[in-house]
Amino acid sequence: MQRDRAAALLSALDGRRVLVLGDLIYDTFVYGDVHRVSREAPVPILSEVRRDAMLGGAGNLARNLVGLGGEVSLISVVGDDAEGDAARTLAEAACGAGLRLVTTPGRQTPAKIRYVSNNQQMFCVDRDPPAVISHPVEAEVMIAVREALGAADVLILSDYGRGLLTPALIRGAIAAAREAGVAISVDPRGADFTRYDGATVIKPNAGELASETGLPVSNDEEAEAALRAFKAELSETEALLVTRGGAGMSLLDADGAVTHHRSKARSVFDVSGAGDTALAALSLAIAAKLDLSDAMALADLAAGVAVTKSGTAVVTPAEMLADADRTQGAPDWRILDRQGIAKLSEDWRAEGLKVGFTNGCFDILHPGHLSVLRHAASVCDRLIVGLNADASVKRLKGPSRPVNDETARAVMLASLDMVDRVVVFEEDTPQDLIEAINPHVMVKGADYVADDLPGAAFVKANGGEVVLAPLVKGQSTTGIIEKLNRDA
Q1: In whole angstroms, what is the distance from residue 355 CA to residue 357 CA?
Q2: Cis peptide before 402 (omega within 30 of 0)
Q3: Structural contact between residues 346 and 407, judged by C-beta atoms closer than 8 angstroms
Q4: Beta strands in 224-345 (DSSP E)
Q5: Domains of the chain from N-terminus onward
Q6: Rounded to the nearest 10 degrees, what angle do helices 292-306 and 3-11 cross at?
């Protein structure tokens, strides 16, 4: 999707009112390092470094809806336990006055604990309530739904199979929404999706659609056949959308037409919560009465940003615009100012990503530069390149330099796959920039002395490291210019 088109569509999402009914899950991420194997069993030992808690399930959906500009009301059920209290606190912070949680004595709050080492999930532990909600709780929740529908543009059923969305509650909520003229989107779970019939859009993933229909969903033709087979069982449902991971999404609309949307290639970091992010964008687009093909494209764009983040992360319109394709094809979204790069580095660090930094003039890009950049990218999760401004290059290299101005040099660097962001600095050294970014690792070519590098002492004092990258012999911008002059 082109950036200008994405900006226009995203502006329509702002302020849309969303009612979320679904399973609230208390998510915990335990991060640590593995250096040895247990003597008691052939299993790795995780040395815990930190743990983060956040809302999962319908709670993560609500967080993403708020992040995308929606006004959210959340209805769910928690137990009278520590996880329930903690989930309520997080949900109040996310939804404010729009929160309606029914506390059920004796019921366990759904919880999930993920254990992560070296940015990879090792395993996950679920703690779920043993049964569906009782009839009195079901009735209380239905009353809350009817009361909230009057102020909603769309109802989302976020079914995580934790016992809240009983068949009776699903049917009652869909009927009430249709009566109120409110659109309905559904993230299904379990077997027999006909219980969601009557929705505006039902959004299974490829595995769920294959399981429901008994048909494969491995290419466009199979996805279309499965969607049509599924739709044949749903007389009241308007549209179906299947998410297919890296293959994109496929939509069967109310007119019976099938549209396939391709995802652009991305480096996938963590798929946790990406489905919620897609559902948030899709539902807000439905609330804004956007065309479903545009809603699908926004959902794919949002999910694509989510998978580049750690944990069940929130996606913002600014991040979606940064990820959208530019009309000119230039990756200028990767070029930030100092304030922007400092904030982004802080966010990356909070997500558990290892931030790397290197710098230089990069006047005429050559294999030596590429070798250093490739090595720098290999020792970190996100690479920031500091680029000397034109005035700085003149002071360092002489009045005839640079050959290429800072805009051209920045765009060339930002076009490289191994470079995540570029920032131009005016000073002769990157000392101040390094202090603003606070990278985990700083990389320079092996022709430098590590301890003499500007910023090296700061990086080491803050627990980071300085790495010297191997050089490619005979490669330099000065050498290239001298050869050009000799051959002229």
Answers
A1: 7
A2: yes
A3: no
A4: 239-243, 249-252, 258-261, 335-336
A5: 3-323 (3.40.1190.20), 332-487 (3.40.50.620)
A6: 100
Task: From first to last of the 488 residues of the chain, give the pLDDT tens digit.
Answer: 777 788 888 999 999 999 999 999 999 999 999 999 999 999 999 999 999 999 999 999 999 999 999 999 999 999 999 999 999 999 999 898 899 999 999 999 999 999 999 878 899 999 999 999 999 999 999 999 999 999 999 999 999 999 999 999 999 999 999 999 999 999 999 889 999 999 999 999 999 999 999 999 999 999 999 999 999 999 999 999 999 988 889 999 999 999 998 876 555 555 566 889 999 999 999 999 999 999 999 999 998 888 877 656 788 888 888 777 643 444 566 888 898 899 999 988 888 889 999 999 998 888 889 999 999 999 999 999 999 999 999 999 899 889 899 989 999 998 898 999 999 999 999 999 999 999 999 999 988 898 999 999 999 999 999 999 988 776 666 667 666 667 66
Catalytic site includes residue 452: no
Nearest to 74 by CA among 53, 50, 90: 90
250 strand-pairing partners: 242, 260
140/148 Cα distance (integer angstroms): 13
List the structure tokens of 257: 């037409």
Tokens of 63: 């967080």
Sign of the C-alpha dihedral computed for residues 222, 272, 120 and 123 taken in this order: negative
Provide CB contacts within 8 A for 262, sequence distance 6+: 247, 248
Catalytic one of 276, 300, 381, 390: 276
What length does the chain have? 488
pTM beyond 0.90: the answer is: no
Question: What are 2's two structure tokens?
Answer: 């082109």
Q: Is the dihedral of CA 135, 141, 145, 147 positive or negative?
A: positive
Range list of H helices, 351-444: 367-378, 390-397, 406-414, 431-437
Which residue in the block uniquely carries the two structure tokens 């009735």?
Answer: 139
CA angle 20, 283, 272 (to 5 degrees): 75
Q: Pick from 369, 371, 362, 351: which is nearest to 440 by CA?
A: 351
Tokens 């802080």 found at: 346
As a whole number of angstroms, the distance between CA 95 and CA 88 comes to: 10
